[in-house]
Amino acid sequence: MHYVKAKGILSAKNGMNLYRGCSHGCIYCDSRSDCYRVKHDFEDIEIKENAPQLLENALKRKRKKCMIGTGSMTDPYIPLEMEIGNVRKALSLIEQYGFGFTVITKSNRILRDIDLLQKINDNAKCVVQMTLTTYDDDLCRKIEPNVSTTSERFEVLKQMRDAGIPTVVWLTPILPFINDTEDNISGILDMCMEAKVYGIICFGMGLTLREGNREYFYRQLDRLFPGLKDRYIRTYGNQYVVSSPHNDSLLRLFHQRCEENGIVHNNDRIFKYLSEFESKADVRQLKLWDI
Fold first, then answer.
1. What is the DSSP letter of 233?
2. Residue 233: CB partners within 8 Å, gap ≥ 6?
3. Which terminus of the chain is more solvent-facing, meaning fewer CB atoms within 10 Å of its CB: N or C?
4. CA 196 to CA 263: how far, in whole Å?
5. Are 174 and 244 in contact (CB under 8 A)?
6. How far apart are CA 129 and CA 214, in angstroms?
């Protein structure tokens, strides 16, 4: 790990990355792509030591409350978070200043902060987003080696359900010839239904590969699935979008089961939900006026 002093913390869309780099080791990780210009070794985590101060200053300057998000580039609940605590410090500030919050993670370390997530959700809106790629824990340990297994993430979703915190699942990536099966998609959907997730984001059954992450992905295929890299190269060449040959049938299954079970499966609608700030204090005040 190494420390840097950042100049800013919130993007134009109010997203933040408290760390840069990741130690989860997911074989398909898009954040390894050269276009993101991570100059240091990807597993050498960059820690923004002044992130809490920058965030507090940014929240104080905001004229309107909004949703603050994290996790799109780096999973914030890497093991180092339990030592550094930048996420918890950020959550405390978000709750203190009355903003909403949403996070994307694959880690059950988020349960450490369920108290703050509940407090945020009591007065604004808090949405926990979890990535699920396979219902098979053994396969999960191969393609996502240093992170919570799918069954552990499923437990997180259920605990969030019981705490009244809405959840969204990212059904991505689905790796051709590895987890692009009807059994896998059905298994994940069964979990989502039991956990009563609000919605599932899916861009299609496949993944994206570009310079940086393609090379890493292929090295891992050689190590874990001998011979499969050659099949990818024969089938897809250097394509950016790598779609499963079963894309159409699996998407039909996905949309049908979501529709039957009341799970939102329109990406635009889910992203709108994730970005919309809600003040429950205002709602309670309106109800008092109605009495």
1. H
2. none
3. C
4. 8
5. yes
6. 25
Cα 119 from Cα 145, distance rounded (Å):
32
Helix 247-260 with 182-195: angle, nearest 10 deg: 20
CA angle 15, 16, 21 (to 5 degrees): 125
Query: Within 13 Å and on the Cβ side, how many CA atoms surround 175?
Result: 25
As given in the structure block, the two tokens for residue 112 are 């450490």
Sorted by sequence, the CB contacts under 8 Å of residue 245 that are 6+ apart come out as: 176, 180
Helices (H), the chain: 51-61, 81-84, 86-96, 114-123, 137-143, 150-162, 182-195, 213-224, 228-236, 247-260, 267-275, 280-290
Q: What pTM value is reported for the model?
A: 0.94
Terminal Cα distance for the chain, rounded: 56
291 residues of the chain, pLDDT tens digit each:
999 999 999 999 999 999 999 999 999 999 999 988 888 888 899 999 999 999 999 999 999 999 999 998 899 999 999 999 999 999 999 999 999 999 999 999 999 999 999 999 999 999 999 999 999 999 999 999 999 999 999 999 999 999 999 999 999 999 999 999 999 999 999 999 999 999 999 999 999 999 999 999 999 999 999 999 999 999 999 999 999 999 999 999 999 999 999 999 999 999 999 999 998 765 555 454 555
Helix axes 280-290, 114-123, angle to 10 degrees: 40
